[in-house]
Design goal:
Keywords: Signal
Number of helices: 1
Structural class: mainly beta
CATH superfamily: Protein of unknown function DUF4465
Helix content: under 10%
CATH architecture: Sandwich
CATH topology: Jelly Rolls
Strand content: 35-45%
Number of domains: 1
Protein name: Dirigent protein
Radius of gyration: 19 Å
CATH class: Mainly Beta
Length: about 200
């Protein structure tokens, strides 16, 4: 009886070893260098993926309550995108450990880029996230951010869950319709990438 299961176990283990392994990530951007209330350098390659038109942002001073804006989900940093109204993109780097990736969830919000740092108010926005595979659109999903009215302290970002965002080589984050005053804030982006 045991010998009849042996070929099945061998087949399953060979199948698993032929597929690339999956590496989970939670991109909270907190290990990247940042200066409070200043937009620093582009993120670039981080945790196995390439972040384009996304910058490290540290709103206010960690541990000090600041006015307005959208707080990071995990202190002190978050990613800021949408500057110059270009799409913010996450992709598989040309050289690196990832073949494809999947997105599970993230926290997001929008604020006005006033260059005043502590006074950047939260701003309503709609975000369209589109996933691509081999240059073709595979999945698209919309997220809506509505700030809490009459709040004077920094507010929490909103949780968003992705549906069907797997087997991607690129994902774009775009405000739709474009709000010329708003910039996109992303934190705790959770997913996994698959090794070749």
């Amino acid at each position: 009886m045991l010998s009849s299961y042996l070929p099945l176990v061998l087949l399953l283990s060979l199948t698993a070893s032929c597929e690339g392994s999956s590496v989970p990530f939670n991109d909270n951007f907190d290990t990247l260098p940042a200066v409070p209330d200043e937009i620093t350098s582009p993120i670039g390659v981080y945790n196995g993926l390439n972040f384009s038109n996304l910058f490290v942002n540290q709103p206010g001073v960690p541990g000090i309550i600041t006015l307005n804006g959208v707080a990071p989900k995990s202190d002190p940093n978050q990613a800021l995108g949408g500057l110059s109204k270009q799409a913010s993109t996450i992709s598989v780097p040309a050289t690196g450990p990832a073949k494809t990736f999947s997105l599970d969830s993230f926290y997001y919000g929008c604020s006005v880029d006033t260059a005043q740092g502590l006074a950047d108010p939260a701003q309503p926005c709609n975000i369209t996230v589109t996933g691509y595979s081999s240059g073709k659109v595979k999945v698209s999903q919309k997220f809506n951010f509505v700030p809490i009215e009459k709040i004077t302290l920094m507010q929490a970002p909103v949780f968003g869950a992705f549906k069907g965002f797997s087997g991607l080589d690129k994902a774009t984050f775009v405000q739709t319709p474009g709000n010329p005053a708003a910039v996109l804030l992303i934190d705790d982006l959770v997913g996994s990438y698959q090794k070749p």
